[in-house]
């Protein structure tokens, strides 16, 4: 029996995933977490065959959780299931240690296929993502500026590029406006930008925002 832990802050998503996977006789979902602390607590208390992890959650992001899971439980595979398109987070998630990346727009059978591929010690990526990964490897010598950002800085950069105000980002990430402002300052310094307009231009040019 494949023992699955679902980490997502939306109850309706967790319920939907359980319904999809309930049709599979060899899959069980005895664990659910709605935030980072719950996920890390369950990972410490029990062993899991695979974790299905969302990226956008209040407090610590899924990327932060992924990093901790990979450090503490390197043999436990993590499948990232996110609302964000592949262009925004997939490469970063895989480089952080995810065993696969799926968007929430994927068909239910794609989720089952991804779990089975990962459980057979494989990695799951779409053909378009595989092509992007190959392209990124070719460009590894001259890293794109946004690859220098930490996961938190990158998350804030994408939201700024999408036109969100710092106060709205603070609410969404459960952080203070002062903390978000500090991340913005670091982003400007690392990227060599002067203002939000340049962040937005970069995000659109590099297809990091929809």
Keywords:
210 residues, alpha/beta, Rossmann fold, Arc Repressor Mutant, subunit A, 2 domains, 5-stranded parallel sheet, globular
Report on the structure:
With 210 residues, this protein is an alpha/beta fold. It has two domains: 2-138, Rossmann fold (3-Layer(aba) Sandwich); 143-205, Orthogonal Bundle (Arc Repressor Mutant, subunit A), CATH 1.10.10. 53% of the residues lie in helices and 12% in strands. It has ten helices and five strands. The protein has helices spanning 11-21, 36-45, 62-72, 86-96, 108-119, 127-138, 151-161, 166-173, 177-191, 196-205; strands at 2-7, 27-33, 50-53, 78-82, 100-103. The chain has a five-stranded parallel beta sheet with strand order 2-1-3-4-5, with helices on both faces. Strand 3, helix 3 and strand 4 (78-82) form a beta-alpha-beta unit. Helix 2 (36-45) runs parallel beside helix 3 (62-72). It is globular and about 55 Å long. The mean pLDDT is 90.
Can I get a quick summary?
The chain has two domains: 2-138, Response regulator (Rossmann fold, 3-Layer(aba) Sandwich), CATH 3.40.50.2300; 143-205, Orthogonal Bundle (Arc Repressor Mutant, subunit A).
